[in-house]
Structures are given as C-alpha cells and as structure tokens.
Amino acid sequence: MTNTNTSTAAKQKILIVEDEGEMCLLINLLLDGKEMEVEHVQSLSEAVEYFQQQPPAIVLLDNRLPDGYGLDFISYIKEKYPATKIIMISGMDAAAKDVAIENGADTFLEKPFNKTTLYSAIEPLLN
C-alpha cells in the first residue's frame, strides 16, 4: 500500500490493551481525527505479539484482562520496550494507581474518563 499523505507517516502508534469492546470503541472515537494510529488487542498474549511486530509509542493498558493483570505487564514493557509510554487504565482498581506508577506506568486514568482527560494524558507523552 502506497501512501502519498506525508502527515500519515508521522502518525504515532497507540495500542489499546482492553478486553471490553465498548471501551475500545469509545477510545477510538475519542482519538479520531488526531494524528495517531490507534489499534487494539484484547489480551496480554496478543499485546506481546503486537509489540514483537512493531512497538507502539503509547500503550493504553487495562488492568483486568482475560489472561492476567496489566499491572504485571508494565515491567515486561519497560524492560523490553523502554521507549514505549504506558497509560494504565482501570475502573475498579483505584488502589492500583500507586502500584502502576511504582511499576513504571507514565500515568494512570481511572474509568470512566472523558475526552479532555484522555487527551491530557496522551498529549505530553507524544512530545
């Protein structure tokens, strides 16, 4: 596929690791129109495969996933892909915020969040 739009080549890759389809759709809609290429996977094992192909600039990482906890995955990302920024997202685990930051997450978003909150978490990490 040939791409003649030069601004598309500069798009930052964002990976959503989230098993709830509605949440993935919502995040995609919120980020639509931004200079970002958004993709998503629904498990940690799919995330590992994705990272091996092309590590994203930013990962939006849910905590409770079918095959494990996002909190435990933070150290894997930081060890193997230190340039990738991590935004931990969680709804029921407000106490997970401190652990996520201690483990190396760049920021934490508590569900539910809005467009402004999402942008304010992502924007500083893109620069």
From TrEMBL:
GO terms for biological process: phosphorelay signal transduction system. Residues 13-126 form the Response regulatory domain. Keywords: Phosphoprotein. Pfam families: Response_reg. InterPro entries: Bact_response_regulator, CheY-like_superfamily, Sig_transdc_resp-reg_receiver. The keyword Cell membrane does not apply. The modification 4-aspartylphosphate is found at D62. SUPFAM superfamilies: CheY-like (SSF52172). This is Response regulator receiver domain-containing protein. It comes from Chitinophaga arvensicola. The lineage of its organism: Bacteria, Pseudomonadati, Bacteroidota, Chitinophagia, Chitinophagales.
